[in-house]
Prior knowledge:
444 residues, globular
Amino acid sequence: xxxxxxxxxxxxxxxxxxxxxxxxxxxxxxxxxxxxxxxxxxxxxxxxxxxxxxxxxxxxxxxxxxxxxxxxxxxxxxxxxxxxxxxxxxxxxxxxxxxxxxxxxxxxxxxxxxxxxxxxxxxxxxxxxxxxxxxxxxxxxxxxxxxxxxxxxxxxxxxxxxxxxxxxxxxxxxxxxxxxxxxxxxxxxxxxxxxxxxxxxxxxxxxxxxxxxxxxxxxxxxxxxxxxxxxxxxxxxxxxxxxxxxxxxxxxxxxxxxxxxxxxxxxxxxxxxxxxxxxxxxxxxxxxxxxxxxxxxxxxxxxxxxxxxxxxxxxxxxxxxxxxxxxxxxxxxxxxxxxxxxxxxxxxxxxxxxxxxxxxxxxxxxxxxxxxxxxxxxxxxxxxxxxxxxxxxxxxxxxxxxxxxxxxxxxxxxxxxxxxxxxxxxxxxxxxxxxxxxxxxxxx
Length: 444
């Protein structure tokens, strides 16, 4: 069974990586992988016969796998509820065209000026929203600002790099950083931000500086302005858009404050913010007709939430948890320590691996491989966990399939994998290594 669970995990991972080739959504593959891995674990520890009868007669109290599964379910559930709350708030702001508060103020056609504005804006927005959502918003913006496809792809590629760099230093900017924060490896938000923002900035600024030389003197042609029907029939006023945008951003920023003050799980702060925004939108639209109100309500927005992504995280995190219970992750940690040894080198390797496979299971695996220690680099807030947040978040930019932001950009703009490899990957790798070197020089 010990070998079989590894085989199942690897096959599931291959199915996830080849999602577009086999035409099976990665969420389905992840769910099957996670559930089969836990079924194999139960069979391995003897979770049949007597224990099943015990469950029927007395519930799950006392069975061998109960403590491990319940513990993992609490951690995973916290992450999933957090993500669902954040996604709902962002969709609600978007339904009110709240992001236009920012995008409508960009007027320049100078290529260098525009790419710096876009990348800096992406960097900080991704820390507040998340790198996936920010990428979607910025791709939508670039379609209104740049007509030429190749030039727009260049900008979108740098948006991916900037979004991943911006998400790495914020507890709500990247799923992997959120996982490390929620599970206690990085509990101190202020320290995390201070320690990671400079390396993350370097990871963006270095490739941006290189690219600026190639864009010097170029001006961009904007496409003919055209608005969709929904723009004209959207029953929101300018004040309503600004109000929902401000409340949405403040609600997201409130989450780490709530956790720090109350010590409750972060998803509770996120749900509180969502509840407040829900009440406010219900009040400001109470006099509108049912059709208009539905599209601007949380009930209507919930239909747009990417539930498949939530189920993907559930499946893959459960699969990694099963490997942890088997002890495979501890063996992997020992092998890495023996073969590589240096924690900084281990994290750099994890970062490059995250460009090939999804960074969520990689970080989940690292969380299972290494225990939180009372002191040292593996302590809560320790340098290993901080550098892991940076590497897993930024390293994924090396390939367009290496991050949720990259996959979203690839899908929205139909960016060719080989084109990204030639034009953006080398820039992303240089930025990643420069940021890693910066962190090493600052704290090693």
